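Objective 1b of the project was to move from sequence-level analysis to a structural picture of ligand recognition. The entry below was assembled by the postdoctoral researcher (A.K.) and checked by the PI before modelling. It contains the amino acid sequence of the target and the SMILES of the bound compound, zinc ion.
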Amino acid sequence: MTNTCEAFLMDDPRKAYEHIDKHAVVVDLYGSSAFGHDLYVWDEGYRNLLYCPLCDAYILKQRSEYHGMEDDDYYTDYFPVSGSKEAAELNLYLDGYAIEQKFPRRYLMKTNHRFSWSPHPKEGPDGETAASESLPEDDDAHP
Ligand SMILES: [Zn+2]
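Corresponding predicted holo structure:
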């Protein structure tokens, strides 16, 4: 039985990021490519395996950079994984774009300095329940 870092159970993606930033440490480096595909999206990036000692849980981090005309954009995804075995399978089967589309659980996204949760993954063949119960986005819209 493996644990999930409690960051992924939080409602507020910023608090989730703060938890990971404060507690998680890098335990493995996967670099920028593996098995003939990139482990990032856009122009450059890499994947690391993080470990949260507070939760005894692992997190796969994907860092991507987009080279703009004046400013670069930075995209970082945090995927809750069971350990290095699942991370290795994700590296093998899913490149930088595919993991963002196909990762089966909710994950944390940091875009420059903004934080958000991934679109709620569909559950089951109809996916209707998951879609209709996705996060209420109006709650934090400009008060
Ligand atoms: Zn944790």
